[in-house]
């Protein structure tokens, strides 16, 4: 595990750029944190670093949004917040195997997550400081965390 502190939107964007540069064409990132912690802000910065030209916003009501990353595939953004208590299969496996997938509130679909992923927990330490805890699950994600 690695902790990285960010104080500004520019710091968040820089972290997202560093992570984007280390990702494969197919990757999974989970984002955990309280409301307002910066999950969607991080996703917007990551998308921009990956070549997404459209505006990324929270998919809370649609649950899943997809964004083309130029000619590099697709960024999938899942917000599982509204899935609490749902036990049926939701078909996310296809998304997990197709592009870069960012999942907010992963604890609500924990049994459906890929076995290997980059887990990021964002904590508001104070009004201006966010702490990103990064944990690689699987060898390639452990290498990403080490490279940061």
Structural account:
With about 150 residues, the chain is α/β, with parallel strands linked by helices. The chain has helices spanning about 10-20, 40-50, 90-95, 140-145; strands spanning about 1-5, 25-30, 65-70, 75-80, 100-105, 115-125, 130-135. Helix 3 links the parallel strand 4 (about 75-80) and strand 5 (about 100-105). The chain starts with a strand and ends with a helix. The mean pLDDT is about 85.
Nutshell version of this structure?
The protein is built from four helices and seven strands, in the order βαβαββαβββα. It has 148 residues and is α/β, with parallel strands linked by helices. The protein has a seven-stranded mixed β-sheet with strand order 1-7-6-2-5-4-3.
Within the CATH hierarchy, at the fold level, what is the topology? Rossmann fold
CATH superfamily: P-loop containing nucleotide triphosphate hydrolases
| Total number of domains | 1
Helix/strand-derived class? alpha/beta
In this structure, how is the largest beta sheet organized?
7 strands, mixed
Mass-distribution shape: globular
Percent range for helical residues?
25-40%
As a percent range, the share of strand residues is: 25-35%
What is Rg? Answer: 14 Å
Topology pattern, helix = H, strand = E: EHEHEEHEEEH
Provide tags for this entry:
148 residues; alpha/beta; Rossmann fold; 4 helices; 7 strands; globular
Topology of helices and strands:
Blueprint: E1 2-6, H1 9-22, E2 27-32, H2 39-49, E3 64-68, E4 74-79, H3 92-96, E5 100-104, E6 117-124, E7 130-137, H4 139-147
